[in-house]
């Protein structure tokens, strides 16, 4: 049998939307941890456009549910019809329904609209033990199951839907999941949140061949926290959103489960309530604290600094025993390097977001050319040197130019920074050691070592560090990764640059 070209077995591109429009049909939790409030946060955290039709109002907090009010069902119909008569809906998540009349109304609407993705979280009892669905409505809820693509019961809900006792362990929970999936013909997510022990697995179960196996289990650790309010709501709405993008339940769960784990782990930082608090839906968007990125860069630079201090070039420059041809080679390459570096600093000026930074880099670019001509005037004129660009100089400048071609201000700055930071650091060390040795006038490189005590350069270095740190705060995760890569590479070139005279002079 040959696969038809028009209908590939494994479509490479699913018809997904960048920002899926996701509707939560659920109850309101005014404390913000569960219900539509959690759903809207989850949907937004996964890049969806969230909408909410409210089935019921609760008066609850992290300690428990004080009251439930189910508005007239006609008003729910008006909400649902208002949305679907105007907006294309890519996915629906259904949570608390309250009573049988609400369930009937939602069923009517689902049958009419037939959304592409329907996730049903059969909410019955809150974590606090309070009922969120009338007992008399349990049968009505069962009748809704075939209209869902994915059902996400916790262990007590799974048992109730089957009319069986609650599963005592994970393998009986999976058996129950299979029975429910077979009964309603769709996919069941069996959740391990209510199990005991250090593990918290979840499993997708489908007995009609939709998944690659009947049971696809995704393991996970259990977070030691009492902040599990709304985990089920958050998980189901996140799954609905991601599914609208991936079209693949396993891929969706693999994306959402680690997010929920981090949301549970970061929950303490929110400090909401005295009972079972909410999870941190936006843990992944917590901004960088000022200075944190620069500190992380410095950690990357430390091994390179150690390598620099152990180089013969640096040790003999400090002692004064450095062979002169090595020093001459270093100075000549420095002049060549500064010419290229100046161009990259000018590019940073061109990309700078503020006038202060534009001015700083423009000045730095000019000063760089001034230092280059001073090198020629005062140092290189009387020495025997080559004007040929050495291999390390060439690679270093090429790396800087490539970073500037990325077009990202943040990445250019990260590439530029080691020349300031490591040079300032090494220079300060060498100068201090010279002064500590009594600043001997007969030291072969005394004049050069004295140039290292430049407070203006130290101040410029501090500014360059701060600008790089601020650029990182506003950068995307991908850009920050590129910054670290560019910075680390420049650090390696700094070491290679000091070692080049030994190899090529
Ligand atoms: N302590 C925990 N550590 C790690 N994951 C957890 C923890 N508690 C729950 N989860 C995860 O949260 C999700 C919801 O699971 P759970 O079984 O608690 O559902 P639920 O009872 O419907 O949630 P809710 O608390 O909102 O009623 C699952 O993915 C589960 O694995
Ligand atoms: C409006 C509403 N919907 C759902 C839940 C379940 O969440 P949990 O079991 O974490 O209390 C809730 N408490 N309130």
TrEMBL record:
Segments forming a coiled coil: none
Enzyme class (EC, first level): transferase
Domain Pyridoxamine kinase/Phosphomethylpyrimidine kinase: residue ranges: 29-280
Residue ranges annotated for the Thiaminase-2/PQQC domain, each copy included: 312-500
Enzyme Commission number(s) from the entry: 2.7.1.49, 2.7.4.7
Gene Ontology terms for molecular function: ATP binding; hydroxymethylpyrimidine kinase activity; phosphomethylpyrimidine kinase activity
Catalysed conversion reaction: 4-amino-2-methyl-5-(phosphooxymethyl)pyrimidine + ATP = 4-amino-2-methyl-5-(diphosphooxymethyl)pyrimidine + ADP; 4-amino-5-hydroxymethyl-2-methylpyrimidine + ATP = 4-amino-2-methyl-5-(phosphooxymethyl)pyrimidine + ADP + H(+)
Pfam entry (one): TENA_THI-4
CDD domains, per database record: HMPP_kinase, TenA_C-like
Pathway: Cofactor biosynthesis; thiamine diphosphate biosynthesis; 4-amino-2-methyl-5-diphosphomethylpyrimidine from 5-amino-1-(5-phospho-D-ribosyl)imidazole: step 3/3
Highest taxon, organism lineage: Bacteria
Stored InterPro entries: Haem_Oase-like_multi-hlx, HMP/HMP-P_kinase_dom, PM/HMP-P_kinase-1, Ribokinase-like, Thiaminase-2/PQQC
GO biological process: thiamine biosynthetic process; thiamine diphosphate biosynthetic process
Keywords: ATP-binding, Kinase, Nucleotide-binding, Thiamine biosynthesis, Transferase
A GO-annotated cellular component: cytosol
Function: Catalyzes the phosphorylation of hydroxymethylpyrimidine phosphate (HMP-P) to HMP-PP, and of HMP to HMP-P.
Protein name, UniProt field: Bifunctional hydroxymethylpyrimidine kinase/phosphomethylpyrimidine kinase
């Amino acid at each position: 049998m040959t696969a038809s070209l028009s209908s590939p077995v494994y479509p490479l591109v699913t018809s997904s939307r960048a920002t899926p429009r996701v509707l939560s049909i659920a109850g309101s939790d005014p404390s913000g941890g569960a219900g539509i409030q959690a759903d809207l946060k989850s949907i937004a955290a996964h890049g969806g456009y969230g909408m909410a039709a409210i089935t019921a109002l609760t008066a609850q907090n992290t300690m428990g549910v004080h009251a439930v009010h189910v508005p007239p069902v006609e008003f729910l119909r008006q909400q649902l019809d208002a949305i679907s008569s105007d907006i294309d809906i890519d996915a629906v998540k259904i949570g608390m329904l309250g009573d049988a009349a609400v369930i009937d109304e939602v069923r009517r609407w689902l049958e009419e609209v037939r959304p592409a993705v329907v996730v049903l979280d059969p909410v019955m009892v809150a974590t606090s033990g309070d009922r969120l669905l009338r007992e008399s409505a349990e049968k009505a809820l069962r009748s809704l199951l075939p209209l869902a693509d994915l059902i996400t019961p916790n262990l007590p809900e799974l048992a109730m839907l089957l009319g069986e006792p609650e599963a005592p362990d994970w393998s009986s929970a999976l058996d129950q999941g299979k029975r429910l999936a077979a009964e309603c013909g769709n996919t069941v997510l069996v959740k391990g949140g209510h199990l005991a022990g250090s593990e918290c697995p979840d499993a997708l179960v489908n007995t009609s061949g939709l998944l690659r196996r009947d049971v696809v289990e995704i393991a996970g650790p259990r977070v030691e926290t009492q902040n599990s309010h709304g985990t089920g709501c958050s998980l189901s709405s996140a799954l609905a959103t991601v599914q609208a993008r991936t079209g693949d339940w396993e891929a969706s769960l693999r994306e959402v489960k680690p997010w929920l784990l981090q949301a549970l782990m970061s929950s303490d930082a929110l400090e909401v309530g005295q009972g079972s608090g909410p999870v941190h839906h936006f843990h992944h968007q917590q901004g960088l604290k000022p200075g944190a990125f620069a500190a992380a860069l410095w950690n990357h630079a430390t091994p390179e600094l150690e390598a620099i201090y152990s180089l013969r070039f640096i040790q003999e420059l400090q002692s004064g025993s450095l062979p002169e041809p090595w020093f001459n080679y270093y100075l000549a390459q420095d002049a060549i390097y500064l010419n290229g570096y100046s161009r990259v600093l000018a590019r940073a000026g061109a990309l700078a977001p503020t006038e202060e930074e534009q001015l700083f880099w423009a000045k730095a670019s000019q000063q760089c050319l001034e230092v280059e001509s001073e090198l020629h005037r005062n140092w290189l004129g009387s020495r025997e040197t080559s004007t040929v660009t050495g291999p390390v100089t060439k690679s270093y400048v090429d790396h800087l130019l490539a970073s500037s071609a990325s077009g990202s201000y943040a990445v250019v700055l990260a590439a530029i920074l080691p020349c300031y930071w490591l040079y300032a650091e090494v220079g300060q060390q060498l100068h201090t050691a010279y002064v500590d040795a009594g600043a001997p006038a007969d030291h072969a490189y005394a004049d050069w070592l004295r140039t290292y005590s430049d407070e203006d350069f130290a101040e410029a270095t501090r500014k360059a560090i701060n600008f790089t740190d601020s650029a990182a705060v506003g950068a995307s995760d991908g850009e920050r990764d590129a910054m670290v890569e560019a910075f680390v590479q420049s650090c390696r070139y700094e070491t290679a640059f000091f070692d080049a005279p030994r190899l090529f002079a």
